[in-house]
Amino acid sequence: MKYSLSIVLLYLASLCATAQSWYVADIDTIKQSGYYNIQLDKRIIAVSNNADFLDIRINDTIGNEVPYFVRAQSPVRAVNEFISYDLESNTTKDSINTIVVRNENGENLNRFSIVIESAEVDKYVTIRGSNNLKQWYIVKKRENITYSGFKEGNNEILIVDFPQGNYKYYELTLTNNQSSPLQILKVGRFKNSNIYAQQTEIDLGTFIRKDSTDKKTYIRFPNLEYNYRLNKLTFYINSKAEYLRKAELNGKDYSIRFNLSSKGENTVVLNSTAISPDGTIVIDNKGNPPLVIDSIKAYALNRYLCAYLEEGQCYRLIIGNKDIAPSSDYDIRYFQDEIPEDLQIVKTSNFEKIEVAAHSNEREKMWIEKPVFLWSIIILVGLFLSAICYKMIREMKKKEE
Question: Has this prediction a pTM greater than 0.70?
Fold first, then answer.
């Protein structure tokens, strides 16, 4: 009898189980079968429960699993050759650089590598295309390209990706947050090279600061929707006086110490550190007045999955679904050194969270599964057991008498 009651209670508890959730995103449509580098949305990186993305699965239209491997996070760049494009013009005005690249052969282009003299400024790019230098069409809206992750001696290499096209001319307009233009040396592409250590700016939302009586400044980001994994934090501080402050970034499982100085760049390099709404930046002011922080910018490393995609198929990423776990041993990983790194990049869209109540099979609950009924049964079973125990105790007492 006790065994039967235990089974009933376990069943009732299973019906009351909490909902499980995971995330999905669509891979943008491709026009030709082949290997592609799938750029992971920063939200996908944030919600993945594994630093190596072992909980991400790619499914095709009918749900078949698609093998992939993760591109190295910080690859060693092996440049065989830099191919420069012919420039129709390269002009400057105030803080604006305008370069027109000539694409005489109608080559399909989707990336420019811009070599510049290193400059510690915020950099932005806009791209237009034309076939006659008269009628121009927008190709890429204004985007921040401040951090590319590449240096070549004293030169900096900016990597700009854009939708593939074959315009005869491409106009690149570079702007920055200072009054002088950049020194642009050449525009081209790297042949047979790794180019994946790029970073994208992450919007952390409005931060809240509190200058406490303990002579410390506390900064939080309460509007974060996801626990983004960051690789750089840059502080923009407004101070006429020289300063040197000790600071730290505190999270659930880490504490990272750094300095803020009027003589430095005030950039903190992180190792894909997850920042959450309860994460806190603490600045120790000691006896000094609190610093005026105009803004804090965050950057995250771009990450890619490499997979063979078929033309005409629709593909979807599934992140964190324990019932549809990806394989841990795809054949493709044994051939990743033979697959070119400089592949066309495809992005994802329609990122969303899926929530399904456990055991519900996406149907409406029957009346016997609703909480009121279930708790009523649990209470009745409890009362029934109590009555049995009370009766057994009374019978034992009578036998003793």
Answer: no
